[in-house]
Every structure is written in C-alpha cells, then in structure tokens.
Write a structure and sequence with these properties.
The chain is an alpha+beta fold. It folds into 2 domains: about 80 residues, no CATH class; about 35 residues, no CATH class. The protein is about 25% helix and about 20% strand. It contains 3 helices and 4 strands. A hairpin with a 5-residue loop joins strand 1 and strand 2.
C-alpha cells in the first residue's frame, strides 16, 4: 500500500431463478499497477545512489565537489560551534547508539582475542530510559 492507497474490490453476486444466492465473484485490482511499480523502482534507484554520508554519490564524487577547484561546491563534516571568543570550529556529533554498539564489539573482541570471529553475530542496541 502506497500513501494509503489500497486495491479496489468489486463483488458480483449470482442468484438462481428463485432469488437465492448461489455464488459470488470478487474481482480485485492488482496491489501494484505499472505506475506504482515504476515509482517504487525510481525511489529505490535514488536510494541506491546515496552514499553512507547521505549525499548522492554522483554529486559527492563530481569534480565540482573538489575543494581545491573554483566554483562548484564542497562538503564540510561535523557541526559548527562558536566558542565565547567568537572562534568557530567543526566538531563531530556523537551517535551514542553506534558508540554503544562498537564499544560492545570491541569489548567482546578483546575478551575473546584478536582472532575472534564476529561473523554472523548480531548486536541489538536498545534504548534504556534512566529513571
């Protein structure tokens, strides 16, 4: 179902000569028509072109993005902060869920040894409210 749309159904009832219901035939629209499938494919193609940084790869790898070249654009990582003296600098933001995951993996690897096989291990990360 896309955007709340659902297929329409039409039921035709069949009666005998005495007026008794003897059967019915329900016809349902396809769940996805050609337009819906094309839309899903287009969205997936766009998502496939987004890099791990959230920017389209064709833009992130363009010569116009080279910070050493005039014109075009450039990328800046982190968030800009200004200290009380008015100095600006860029700092990373901390993804605490990702940090918890990586810290747990590091601790496991350290306890199990550097040759520990982590293949197939899943590390669920839960949010725990402090009360």
């Amino acid at each position: 179902m896309l955007w709340g749309w659902s297929p329409r159904e039409h039921t035709e009832y069949h009666y005998d000569d005495a007026g008794l219901l003897v059967g019915s035939t329900t016809t349902r629209e396809p769940e996805f028509d050609a337009t819906q499938r094309a839309l899903v494919r287009t969205v997936q193609e766009q998502l496939d072109m987004v890099g791990p940084h959230g920017h389209p790869m064709d833009e992130a790898t363009s010569p116009l993005a080279d910070p050493n070249e005039p014109g075009g654009w450039y990328y800046a990582a982190g968030v800009e902060i200004v200290n009380p003296a008015g100095q600006r600098r860029r700092v990373p933001i901390v993804d605490f869920a990702e940090k918890a995951l990586l810290d747990a993996q590091d601790a496991y690897r350290k306890a199990a040894g550097d040759d520990a096989n982590l293949n197939g291990l899943h590390w669920p990360v839960r949010r725990i409210d402090r009360t």
